[in-house]
Amino acid sequence: MKTGVIARYRDFLPVTDHTPPLTLNEGDTPLIRSRRLAELLGVPELYFKYEGTNPTGSFKDRGMVVAVAKALEAGSRAVICASTGNTSAAAAAYAARAGLEAIVVIPRGKIAGGKLAQALIHGARIVAVDGSFDDALRIVRTLIERHPLALVNSINPHRIEGQATAAYEIVDALGDAPDVLCLPVGNAGNITAYWEGFKRYHRAGRASQRPRLFGFQAAGAAPIVLGRPVERPSTVATAIRIGNPASWQRAVRARDESGGRIEAVTDEEIVDAYRLLASHEGIFCELASAASVAGLRKALANGWLDGSERIVCVLTGHGLKDPDTAIRLGGRPEPVPPRVEAVEAYLGL
Ligand SMILES: *Cc1c(COP(=O)(O)O)cnc(C)c1O
Q1: What value does the mean pLDDT of the chain take?
Q2: Mean pLDDT, residues 59-84 taken together
Q3: Is residue 129 within 8 Å of 135, Cβ to Cβ?
Q4: Which residues is 33 bridged to in the sheet?
Q5: Helix 113-121 to helix 86-98 angle, to the nearest 10 degrees?
Q6: Ligand 1 atom at minimal distance to the Cα of residue 192
Q7: Which of 132, 149, 303, 345 has its CA 20 to 30 A from that of 182?
Q8: What is the structure's pLDDT at 135?
Q9: Strands 45-50, 31-33: parallel, antiparallel or unpaired by DSSP?
């Protein structure tokens, strides 16, 4: 088995004989058949594409490995990105692997601890701006015009190409494209990438159909749903706290071409889905990831889907990125004296 997305999907990626074979063995993530949640929701065929098992814990690795390999090929010395956290973690790791410098611009105080830890320990130069992700991206876009830095945000087309490999994996695992794909939408690079991937695989004869794409934004950060940028996006799901998505138009096109929808889910619905995935399926994902399942519940409740479809929900990142949130929601355990009787009394045994 070839390891890493560049080796595995070479024919579908913009790689040449001169592209370095960079990899941290990203991709090849599990497509997990739902049991208890499928039953709860009345959906016989539901799967989770669990991207938390990627090397840095999110799907961002798929696009980053291609973007950094292409930056190396082009002779770049440094990569730069704006990030809500996972892009910076992936950029820092792959730059370290490649021997490049990484600069990451993040909104100060709005990055989950695990993601910041990753960027720090991989040796990225971190700039924490007093502003939003959208501010960070605007600054980075100007910096790349003035300095020889390779941009590795998802507006870099190589990122989108790399992320499309998740669609290939789903088709390869199921033997065809699913009927419906549900996923969270932030900067909208991933919904764009999945659509490109499904279309390409379909054209290549690897799938008989293309899925309908159901994208979900957080209600406090739902510019595509509202049809206008959101000045001060707000949601517990930091990875999709974005008010002016870079791939807005392409996401709308993916929605319309696929016959899908882009809708909003509330923070409460996201947290419920996050808990359900952990308690009923044994899958610990990020809050933002749970927007896909929150959205599926909404789609079923509103009759947008009838449940007979073969459905895949993308779980974009690992819950351990942000343990503080899980502990806050779960409630820290009370201390108990170190005696058997005390433990029995506590447990009610
Ligand atoms: C980046 C990210 C998203 C949003 O993806 P976009 O491509 O920005 O729409 C969702 N979940 C997680 C965990 C992410 O890291």
Answers
A1: 96
A2: 96
A3: yes
A4: 47
A5: 20
A6: 7
A7: 132
A8: 92
A9: antiparallel
Mean pLDDT of 103-109: 92
Per-residue confidence at 259, pLDDT binned at 50, 70, 90? very high
Could you tell me which of 280, 142, 254 has the C-alpha nearest to residue 199? 254
pLDDT for res 38: 98
Q: Is the pLDDT of residue 332 over 90?
A: no
Alpha helix stretches (DSSP H) within the chain:
5-8, 36-41, 60-73, 86-98, 113-121, 133-146, 157-163, 165-174, 189-203, 223-226, 248-258, 267-281, 287-301, 323-330, 340-347
Nearest CA to ligand 1 atom 8: 187
Which atom of ligand 1 is nearest the CA belonging to 193? Answer: 7
Pocket test for ligand 1, best of 29, 59, 225, 277 (most atoms within 8 A of CB): 59
Q: Whole-model pTM above 0.70? A: yes
Confidence label for 345 from pLDDT (cuts 50, 70 and 90): very high
Asked if the model's pLDDT at residue 232 lies above 80, the reply is yes
Residue 347 C-alpha to ligand 1 middle, in angstroms? 40
- For 229-258, b where at least 16 C-beta lie within 10 A, e where not — what string? ebeebebbbbbbbbbbbbbbebbbebbeeb
Instruction: Tell me which residues have their CB closer than 6 angstroms to ligand 1.
Output: 58, 60, 86, 154, 184-190, 239-240, 286, 288-289, 316-317
Per-residue three-class SS string for 152-169: CCCCCHHHHHHHCHHHHH
Closest C-alpha to ligand 1, atom 4 = 186
